[in-house]
Amino acid sequence: xxxxTIASVVKDGLCTGCGTCIAxxxxxxxxxxxxxxxxxxxxxxxxxxxxxxxxxxxxxPGHEVDFKQLNLEIFGKEPEDILIGNYLNCYVGHSTDYNIxxxxxxxxxxxxxxxxxxxxxxxxxxLVTRMKKDKxxxxxxxxxxxxxxxVEASKSKYCPVPANIALNEIxxxxxxxxxxxxxxxCHIHGIRKAEQISKKLKEKIVLHVGxxxxxxxxxxxxxxxxxxxxxxxxxxxxxEYRGEGWPGGMKITTKNGNIIFxxxxxxxxxxxVFNSFFFPIRCTLCNxxxxxxxxxxxxxxxxxxxxxxxxxxxxxxxxRNKLFEEFLNRASLKGKIELKNVNKxxxxxxxxxxxxxxxxxxxxxxxxxxxxxxPLYHQDLLKSSFSDHLHVLPFYFRxxxxxxxxxxxxxxLYLFSIENASYYKSKILKSKK
Length: 433
Known about the structure:
The protein folds into 2 domains: about 5-220 and about 280-355, no CATH class; about 220-275 and about 405-430, no CATH class. The protein is built from 17 helices and 13 strands. It has helices at about 5-10, 20-25, 55-60, 65-75, 100-105, 110-120, 145-150, 165-170, 185-195, 200-205, 220-230, 305, 320-335, 345-350, 355-370, 385-400, 410-430, and strands at about 30-35, 40-45, 90-95, 125-130, 140-145, 180-185, 205-210, 235-240, 250-255, 260-265, 295-300, 315-320, 335-340. The chain is globular, with a radius of gyration of 21 Å. Helix content is about 40%, strand content about 20%.
């Protein structure tokens, strides 16, 4: 078999699980599977159906993303600042609909703007993701065509999401229909590469909405949390990773009607578990956390002065082209959203993008030592310091070893020590008052 298929990407450990190859395969020779050991999606190639056309390899963002070529093609120039990419303006804002704002991950702007785009006829549908009703621990990418369906897909999904499998529905849609796509950097990379091959796809997608991303936790992160909370996977009726105000948290509804809530900043949830132990290795090699190839990027506003007295969330926005700027202004004038200009440094500070970019070269160097394959980006990387290398070693130790099921007792012991340390610290502080 030719090396120029998705099989070689999987073999090299570079698959992002984005789903682009499945939607674009003309022979329908690729199916999506879950690798339960690693807790990630893996495409499986049917060698008998495959005609070796190489399309799956060409659209795959896992092994290569030519940032120089794509920036020139999309924006007509390379970015002056690789930390934030090509952009026109940065904003902070939120939906004026309090229910949408409160029930979303941060500010509700993506949900509100997609609804507005449907209402004014800019789009006929949007590629978004919700959790499956029959399998509540698995995501379901789909094309939302109503405001109600867009709301169903609100809130973050802290698990692997093969969003681009829904591109097939866009390709098979009626003539003249236009769509928005919402995705993480890897999803947008795959879509941009697919648009280079499919003129039809490029004509139909009129809005690329990017979500600034640190990483996507594996399914093992959710499994660990459920186990720690003593909830059986089969007992989960509904799982919401983010909501209930800001910063919110995970809300689990069981089949017997019980509701369990894990606060976002708790040691059980994102505070420690989801942000320390369950990074997919390919995620750690991403060179575009800010989603610089999108038309617009959205993110939580993790800035102290913006977090004060805020119980419903706000969003940071990086607007990258004139068409979206005009669309944003129309939504603001119609009273659908509230916006305020901010400096790009607010975005960089909020997402620690400088730190992540600096560590990338160190991560690549460490993984190369262990014989791992590295994706090609055709873009210069920032220089990593000695301290960056020191940070990377324990980072990979946690994610390559401690995340394995037979080491979960060590994670639990670590969390127990943190919880007790916090408890005794609070008692000491109270006694001194």
